[in-house]
Amino acid sequence: MLCVEILGPRQAQVSQRPDPQASGDIVKIQILVAPMCTEWQSWRSGKLSCELGHEAVGVVVDAAQSKRLKVGDRVIVMPHAGCGVCPACRSGEHIHCTSQRDLLDETGSSSGIGCYAEFLLKPDYLLQPVPDDIETHHAAMAICALGPSFTAMHRMQVSPQDTMLISGCGAVGLGAIINARTIGARVIALELNPYRAALAQELGAELVIDPRAPDLIEQVRAASGGYGVDAALDTSNNEGAPAVVLELLRARGRLAFVTWSGSLPVNRITGKGIDIFGAWHWNHDVFAEELLQRVRDARPLLDRLTTHRFAMSEVASAFALQETGNCGKVLLYPGKTAQA
Predict the structure, then answer these.
(1) Contact yes or no for 256/278 (Cβ under 8 A)
(2) pTM, whole model, 2 decimals?
(3) pLDDT per residue over 302-315, tens digit each?
(4) 265 and 294, same domain (yes or no)
(5) What does the alpha-carbon distance between residue 40 and residue 322 come to, in Å, rounded to a whole number?
(6) Can you tell me the distance from the alpha carbon of 263 to that of 146, in angstroms, rounded to the nearest whole number?
(7) Domain that residue 227 falls in
């Protein structure tokens, strides 16, 4: 099969690898589209790999001994390969599993665990069937574009009565704006990239502020009744952002993170009585119907979020675009041409 391989700093090509083999409950999927996430950072640094990508929508081409799926099923691919038996997995929180399966070892395959490829291996319980009325490119938004912020807002119980702050308008933050606006909440966004700031407004952010503004706190409070926002989500991955976002919340506000950087002052958390949540992904065992309905409801906004499409042969150009930040969600297609 063909797959994307990183050869060095800012060097990527399409390489030939052996086709993976399905076995047991591990099925083989033909990738239809792979949304691009943070893999461009590996391309920039030159982290060698031929197993790239953790998001995809595809079609089952070998169901092996699966009792959940059959050949021809169109599915959303969930990240990682949780064991399926630990407390986290049994509750549907597979992303938090600490005993990941070795799919290559279990199937005797030498490749097949990256989504930037023609084929992929995945345990059947980590594949969510796509309803016939949802198009493939829209289903692809149900992974990192909408999933992490969907969980964050569900846990924060965001409602139409809330003013919501989104820190960072990369693809995850832009997807968070879509989630919040589809719920009916007001949105204030923080973003310094002009392209993404404009896209944030197009997607429904009422106000977009440069987080470097010296009067940031005053601007946010002025736009939220003088007390601060009701709920906030940081997706920026900026080391200094969490403590700043904390100060933009009203007392007894709610704060969630889809990020891996930064720290918080405990005295301010306690003093303001803030509820805090960490959200990595979404639980398809519990919330599949609700999130798929969110996809249906948000179709026009999802079309605006998807700013670029590339064939797999054009992956180096796609990585270079992502590095500039001048894009929303980028889709990668294994075929010779990017599909509409």
Answers:
(1) yes
(2) 0.96
(3) 999 999 999 999 99
(4) no
(5) 7
(6) 25
(7) 147-278
